[in-house]
Specification:
Its main location: cytoplasm. It is found in: Cytoplasm. One of its GO terms (molecular function) is heat shock protein binding. This protein is α+β, with helices and mostly antiparallel strands and about 375 residues long. It folds into five domains: about 5-105, DnaJ domain (Helix Hairpins); about 115-160 and about 200-255, HSP40/DNAj peptide-binding domain (Sandwich); about 165-195, Heat shock protein DnaJ, cysteine-rich domain (Chaperone, DNAj Protein, Chain A), CATH 2.10.230.10; about 260-335, HSP40/DNAj peptide-binding domain (Sandwich); about 340-384. About 30% of the residues lie in helices and about 25% in strands. It is built from ten helices and 15 strands. The chain has helices spanning about 5-10, 20-30, 35, 40-55, 60-70, 90-105, 130-135, 275-280, 340-355, 360-384; strands at about 120-130, 135-150, 165, 175-180, 180-185, 195, 210-220, 230-235, 250-255, 260-265, 265-275, 285-290, 295-300, 310, 330-335. The protein has a four-stranded mixed beta sheet with strand order 10-11-15-14. The chain has a three-stranded mixed beta sheet with strand order 1-9-8. Strands 2-7 form a two-stranded antiparallel sheet. A hairpin with a 2-residue loop joins β4 and β5. α2 (about 20-30) runs antiparallel to α4. The longest helix has 23 residues, at about 360-384. It is elongated, with a radius of gyration of 39 Å. The N and C termini lie far apart (about 90 Å). Residues about 85-95 and about 105-115 have low confidence and may be disordered.
């Protein structure tokens, strides 16, 4: 059976540079690596094929010979002396070096699994009110997490015993198997890559070295915090294994919506109804503030719906600077009176009879534009 073209195997063109070849090899080697395919013979064959192709094309001399003579360059009597990895060289060692160069010193998967492993980070979602975000607060939370087992001090071995070095991998956490002229490295099946085996597991944790516990923590929520912000508590995550450091705890804050105020960064907004008479004559209305107090807002004479009035310093504090505080914007909407008595209606009619264009400039201007529009439409019809 004839060999496939090396460039075709890697999915590269003949003018591909070293970076493109290396990238193609990395992707295919990860795809067909035996550890990723459960020992599938077809995947192992493809893995070998990809390794052989890259071993040739990554060498300038071998690539030049292959480009000129093809596979014949490495057959008996060919330019390569019958070995695509180089005459007299040990193909196993060369392949291991090649794989380590592409994926790192630890081989496939990087570092070995037997060493200390940092504990996982944890996430906790915390809801607070807008008023609590304004003042800040000290919150007590309960976080379930894995902690080191006390009876075995996190070793997983029963008290009085210790984990033993795995006799299959010698503590390396990896074992090698011969596959033709390749040496394949896999996770040790006996110790699962830890390099240690536990003959007498701890009864408390079952040999895991960790147990689940719910811890109570006190968290300081700063004033001015906003939804989406996170607070990091270093070393309050999951415990590490084999002496590894603890992970961190991240608290994600969600400020729930308020019935009265809407927030935009440090500023607050609210809509306030204004009686028609107050809007016309001017006056004052009273509104609440986020700190639980009250504030009086002066309504100018002739105020219209949609007008915003600003109360300086009545917004939210800045989480970055306690000296900075946002503003409170009050948007007015003029309330039309309902459920009028006969006398009230009579007074309103009298008011309407004695008002003119000066009292309703917006209405008069709008009516004027309507009249001009209608007159223009009539003129156009007559012209046609």
């Amino acid at each position: 059976m004839s060999k496939r073209d090396y460039y075709e195997i890697l999915g590269c063109t003949r003018d591909a540079d070293e970076k493109q070849l290396k990238s193609a090899y990395r992707k295919l080697a990860m795809k067909y690596h035996p550890d990723q395919n459960g020992g599938n013979p077809e995947a192992e064959e493809r893995f070998k094929e990809v390794g052989e192709a890259y071993a040739v094309l990554s060498s300038a001399d071998k690539r030049a010979a292959y480009d000129r003579f093809g596979h014949a360059a490495f057959e008996n009597g060919g330019a390569g002396g019958g070995n695509p990895f180089g005459g007299g060289a040990n193909p196993e060692d060369i392949f291991q070096d090649l794989f380590s160069q592409v994926f790192g010193a630890g081989g496939f998967g990087g570092r070995r699994r037997g060493g200390p492993q940092r504990g996982a980070d944890l996430r906790y979602d915390l809801e607070i009110t807008l008023a609590e975000a304004y003042t800040g607060k000290d919150e007590s939370i309960h976080v379930p997490q894995a902690v080191a087992c006390e009876p075995c001090s996190g070793s997983g071995a029963a008290p009085g015993s210790t984990p033993e070095t795995c006799d299959m991998c010698g503590g390396a956490g990896r074992v090698r198997a011969q596959q033709g002229f390749f040496t394949m490295e896999r996770t040790c099946p006996r110790c699962s890559g830890k390099g240690k085996v536990i003959r007498k597991p701890c009864k408390e944790c079952g040999g895991a070295g960790q147990v689940r516990q719910e811890r109570q923590l006190s968290v300081k929520i700063p004033a001015g915090v906003e939804s989406g912000m996170r607070i990091r508590l270093s070393g309050e995550g999951e415990s590490g294994t084999a002496g590894g450091s603890k992970g961190d705890l991240y608290i994600f804050v969600d400020v729930v919506e308020h019935d009265i105020f809407e927030r935009d960064g440090p500023n607050l907004y609210c809509r306030a109804p204004v009686p028609m008479a107050t809007a016309a004559l001017g006056g004052e209305i009273e509104i609440p503030t986020i700190d639980g107090g009250r504030a009086k807002v002066a309504i100018p004479e002739g105020a219209q719906t949609g007008r915003k009035l600003r109360l300086r310093g009545k917004g939210m504090p800045s989480v970055r600077s306690s000296a900075q505080t946002g503003d409170l914007y009050v948007e007015m909407f003029v309330e039309t009176p309902r459920n009028l008595t006969s006398r009230q209606k009579e007074l309103l009619r009298e008011f309407c009879d004695c008002t003119g264009a000066d009292c309703h400039p917006e209405s008069e201007g709008f009516l004027g534009r309507i009249k001009r529009f209608w007159n223009g439409a009539e003129d156009e019809k007559r012209a046609n």
